[in-house]
Amino acid sequence: MSLENVTHIDNVRLSDGGDAVVIIDQSLLPNETKYLTLSGREELFEAIHTLRVRGAPAIGVFAAYAACVLAGQTRETSYEAFYRRFSADKAYLDSSRPTAVNLRKALDYMDDIVRANAGRPVPKILEAMKSGALKLHQENMEMSQAISENGMELIKDGDGILTHCNAGPLGTFHYGTGLGTLFLARERGMTLHAYCDETRPLLQGARLTTYELQSAGIDCTLICDNMASIVMKEGKINAVFVGCDRVAANGDTANKIGTSGVAILARHYGIPFYVFCPSSTIDFSCETGDDIKIELRDPSEIKEKFFIKPMALPEVKCYNPAFDVTDHALITAIVTEKGICRESYTESLAMFKQPAHPPR
Ligand SMILES: CSC[C@@H](O)[C@@H](O)C(=O)COP(=O)(O)O
């Protein structure tokens, strides 16, 4: 695969007939590239829940398309019955994963569209939903490009960048968020060296980030999560770049489990720690990170999905939080599509409180 192919990867789209969502099954990468065409209520839910589609922006757009597909299956002709069915589907999809706010915001955005078309014939509502979902997808692509562009001022040729989890084109759109600047820098002829945390337990860093970077011809080295400290100490890392799933009003940031540990290490070694996200990932209803719900996942992800089976005795207790919150005091800057926010985040993030667009 080339740089161009990676940054234009077709990770999530509405099928040509509009009756299904087509995704790359990220749970099978990098061993198998398999596209899934999903239209059943349970399979759409399952795709998010099992991380076949994953990454905060990608699950938001996927959910918007899924809402269109399910609404298209309705036989209801009255607006009231149609809206009841839509609300039930919305609540069901929203319950598939709790931490990435993009999922809830995308569904609220679809809800706004349905309510704005109250009383119109169902086919007209469906048309409005489809064009809204396509617009959301397009906006996400543009935001990724702007975020990546804004990150360019944070790097110089030859830098070593540590990454955690995957915030590239697969989990977002176009260039990506946390990885976007690396792809843009490559496009512009710069040489960066990425060190990629494998990201236990589901190995998004090993399976997806190194796959994307290597396919695009970006120098990357895979490390185990517990090796981040030594590469920092050895002077290989100039900055840490991560994406995120939800940012509280004070800048506390939820991202893949292990991110806050990386931020603590970066502070210890005096390395800047940057968070990249579209402004839609900021959730002003969460005052601090304590208000962010952390997803707890199945223990089998720790005990079974690795190279030795079983990896622990079946009766061993497991604690499997999928995300953690990085304290805003450890974050050097939050890079959004509209610019770079720094402390005090309560003030710098406040510019996003009155979005020009409908919420998404
Ligand atoms: C893809 S952008 C940022 C985040 O969504 C990403 O860093 C992350 O933590 C994703 O977690 P995942 O559990 O793989 O959906």
UniProtKB/TrEMBL annotation:
EC nos: 5.3.1.23
InterPro entries: IF-2B-related (IPR000649), IF-M1Pi (IPR005251), IF_2B-like_C (IPR042529), Initiation_fac_2B_a/b/d (IPR011559), M1Pi_N (IPR027363), NagB/RpiA_transferase-like (IPR037171)
Keyword entries, A-Z: Amino-acid biosynthesis, Isomerase, Methionine biosynthesis
Pfam family for this entry, one: IF-2B
GO MF, any single term: S-methyl-5-thioribose-1-phosphate isomerase activity
Pathway: Amino-acid biosynthesis; L-methionine biosynthesis via salvage pathway; L-methionine from S-methyl-5-thio-alpha-D-ribose 1-phosphate: step 1/6
Active site: 245
Binding site for substrate: 54-56, 97, 204, 255-256
UniProt cross-references to HAMAP family, sorted A to Z: Salvage_MtnA (MF_01678)
Name under which the protein is recorded: Methylthioribose-1-phosphate isomerase
